Amino acid sequence: MKGMIKIMKKASALVLAILMICSALLFAGCGKSPDDKGAVVKMYISAFPSNLDPTAVNYGSADNAKLFGLLYEGLFRINSKGKLEKGVADEYKYFADARDNTLKLEIKLKATNWSDGIAVDAEDFVYAWQRLLNSETDNTAAALLYPIKNARKVKEGQCSINDLGVCAIKDNVLQITFEKDFTNVEYFIRRLASPVLVPLREENASKFDDKDNSDYSWQTSSAKAIPLTNGPFKYKNVNDKEIVLERSLHYNNVSELKDNPVDKAVKPYQLITVYSDGATADEQIDKFLNGEIFYINLSEADEETIKKAGKTQSTLIPSTYTYFFDTTSRLFGDARVRQALSIALDREHINSLTGRGTKAAEGIIPFGVEDTMKNTEFRKAAGNMFAPKGDIEKAKELLAEANVKSGSFTIEYNKDREYEEKIAEYAKSVWKELGFSVTLSGKNSKYFYGITSENTKFAEGDAKIIGLDFQCTTPDAYSVLVGFSKKYAGGRADAEADEPVYTKLNITGYDSEEYDIICDAIVYAANNEKRAEAMHTAEEKLIEDSPVIPLFNNADVYASKELSKIDADFFGAKNFTKMKMKNYQKHLPAANEG
Question: pLDDT digits over 157-199, tens only?
C-alpha cells in the first residue's frame, strides 16, 4: 500500500513538472502563445472594390455583398435557408400607441461596438436611414423605408428629416412609427435584414460623404482613411496592393467581457487578399493550388480556372446578370425595340457560357426570392417568362412594328470576366441577324464595381447597353421591382414643385406612369398576398417594356483548403466568424510581415 502511494506521489510530481514546463514554454505543443492571436488566412475574397459605401450593393458586382457582409451587421439577418435571425437587435415588440393612434415598433439593441470601441447605439441607425432618405441623394434603398411615417415625404423634400418616424428613445432602443395604413410589421422586420440598412456613425460617415474633405472618400482610388465598421471584421488596411480585414475585438462586446478569449466571437484573426500578384481569381488560382492562399472566390472566374481549382462549392444567390438599356437614347426609347433584342436571345445557351453553377434567367426576379413570405418562392409561382431558345421571328415582327430596320450601339462588359465577353460576342451575333451594328467595349472590374443610380455610366444621347450584376437586397422581390419606378427609385425630387418632380430616375431612365401605379399597389399592399399579386403584375409589365434584359441567375462559387465552418447568408455574403483553419500555426506570417 505504501509503495502504491509512493508511485502515485511520483506520478503527481511528474504531471506537475510537465505542467510547469508547459507554462514556461507556452507554445511547445502544450499551449498557445500569448502572441498567437489566431489564424491569419490569406485568401481571395473578392475583386478589388472601387466603392466602400456599404449601401452601394445593388449594381455592379455581386461581390459587393460578400465583402460588406463581413464588415457590417444590421438589426437582423436572413440565413441561407431563409430563416430570420437577430443581428444587432436583441429583442423587439410592436404595439398600437393610443396616445397618437399609431403602430410602433421598438427594437432593443444588444451590446456591441464599432471597430474603434465606441458603442453602437440607436442613433447610428437613425442617422443611416436619414442618410438614405436625404432628398439630395440617390439611393434605391430609400423605398425600403417607406412604411415608416413620413419617409416618402422626407425623400421628396415635402417635410423635414426631423419629421421622420424613427428615433432613439434610449441609447439602445430604436423606435419606429409607421404610416397609418401600414400594419404588416413582421414583413417589415424581414426587410430590416437588408444589407443596405446597416448602421453608420454620423461623425465618421459624414466625413466620407463630404466631397470637400480630401482625406475621406468612399472611392478607394482617392481614399486616405478607412471607414469604421460594426461587423465581425474591420478594415486593417486597404490599398491597391491588398485588403486586410482583421477581427474586431469590439464586436459583440467581447473586449468588455472578463476571462474570455479574443476569438470568442470571431475565430480567424485576419483575412488577407493580396492584389499585387493579380486582381482576379484567374490570376490568383496558382497561389491557391500552391497552398499560398486557402480560400478563393471563383464567382467571376474563367471556366478553366474553376476546373483547375478542383472541388468547389456552388450556390445560387439572389443576383441576376443583366443587360441594362439606356432607355433615354433614341434607338432604345421604343419598348418594342428593347423587347425584340431581349426575346431574340437564347438564355439557355448564354447560361452554358458561364461554366459555373448559374441558371438561365426566367424573369426579372432571380431564383430563391420569397413570394408571399418565407417558404414560398416568387420564381416558382411566376414560371418562366421567356422562350427557352429565343424567338428571332417574333423579334423581327416587333422591329417591323416599330419601323426599325437597323441601328448601332455599344455593349459594355467586364473584361475581367471571360464569360461576359463570350456572352457579348453571342448577343452581337444574334442582334446582327436583326440588322444591328454592335460594338463591344470591355472595361475592367473597377469600372463596374461601384456603379450606382447616381453615377450611371451612360453618356447622354448614346445608345448603350451595360452588363451588370443586379443584386436583390430584400428577401422578396420588392427591392428589385420598385427600383424601376420613378417614384420609388430613390432619386432626387424637386421639393419646390406642387407635385414631386423627380430629377433623377432609375439607372435605365425607364419612366412609366402605369408602372408607377403598379408599384403603388406593391408599396401600400394590405397584406402579403396582395403585395405578391402586385409584384407579379410589375414583373409582367417589366418583361413587356424590357428596360433590362435578365440573362442568368448568379451563383456563389468558391474553393477552400484546410478551412471548415464557412457559412453564408441569403444574400450571398460569407460568414467567416466561426471558420476554423487546420494547423493554422504553420501558416502564421513571419514577425516582419505582421
Answer: 889 999 999 999 999 999 999 999 899 999 999 999 999 999 9
Residue with cell 461581390: 63
- The alpha helices in 210-328, defined as continuous H runs, are 281-289, 303-309
**Would you say residue 336 has pLDDT above 70?**
yes
d(CA 391, CA 550): 16
C-alpha 114: how far from chain center: 20
Beta bridge partner(s), residue 168: 174
Contact 213, 204 (CB under 8 A): no
Quick: pLDDT tens for 10-64: 444 444 444 444 443 433 334 456 567 889 999 999 888 888 999 887 776 777 7
Phi, psi dihedral angles at 418 (to 5 degrees): -55, -40
Distance CA 112, CA 105 (A): 21
Grid coordinates belonging to 324: 441594362
The predicted model gives 368-380 an average pLDDT of 90
Residues 469 and 62: beta-carbon distance below 8 Å: yes
CA distance 273 to 242: 6
Q: What angle do CA 90, 95, 96 make, to 5 degrees?
A: 155
Give the closest residue to 463 by CA, choosing from 372, 593, 349, 333.
333
CB 399 within 8 A of CB 405: yes
**Nearest Cα residue to 340 out of 290, 383, 400:** 400
- Residue 397: alpha-carbon gap to chain centroid: 39
Query: pLDDT for 459-488, tens place per residue?
Result: 666 799 999 998 899 999 999 999 999 888
Quickly list H helices, 133-212. Answer: 151-155, 185-191, 202-209
Backbone angles phi, psi at 470, to 5 degrees: -115, 105
pLDDT at 290 over 90: yes
Q: How far apart are CA 394 and CA 386, in angstroms?
A: 12
Beta strand spans in 400-536 (E) = 407-414, 436-443, 464-471, 493-494, 501-502
Contacts of residue 14, defined as CB under 8 A and 6 or more positions apart, other chains included, come to none
Flag whether pLDDT at 502 surpasses 50: yes
What pLDDT score was predicted for residue 30? Answer: 40
**Among 135, 313, 116, 138, which Cα is nearest to 203's?**
116
Q: Tell me what pLDDT residue 25 has.
A: 40
**What letter does residue 549 receive in the DSSP assignment?**
E
Residue closest to 579 by CA, chosen among 247, 143, 229, 199: 247
Pairing between β-strand 233-239 and β-strand 464-471 as defined by DSSP bridges:
unpaired
